[in-house]
Amino acid sequence: MSTRAYARPAPRVLIAALALLACACATASATEGQLIRRAAFDLQCPADALETVPLDERSVGVRGCARQATYVEHCETGANPYGTYRHSCTWVLNSDGRELPPRDASEPPVASLDAAAR
Fold this sequence. Notes:
This protein has helices at about 10-25, 30-45, 115, and strands spanning about 50-55, 60-65, 65-80, 85-95. By secondary structure, the protein is an alpha+beta fold. The protein has a four-stranded antiparallel β-sheet with strand order 1-2-3-4. About 10% of the residues are buried.
């Protein structure tokens, strides 16, 4: 009868496993593309007619087609039903998408997410 000694994983294998785990734990954010697609649907407005306005770290206003709405980034982290780690984020409507009064032509345009990121 042969006995096998338990072999320890090589340090490289452990480092690779830790790196993979670190990648799985990295946080992802909801994208501007997700926001625009959702707002286009909610506001019944073409995506190219929408402008975004950063409100704070997790909230963004979207305007277009004489309407505006506020969205909040919502993230979930945890194990899915299959027992694997999951991190996902999306935008959640946080207002009623009300109609805007006519805009005065003398008002400066609102900054977009792209301009705020610069």
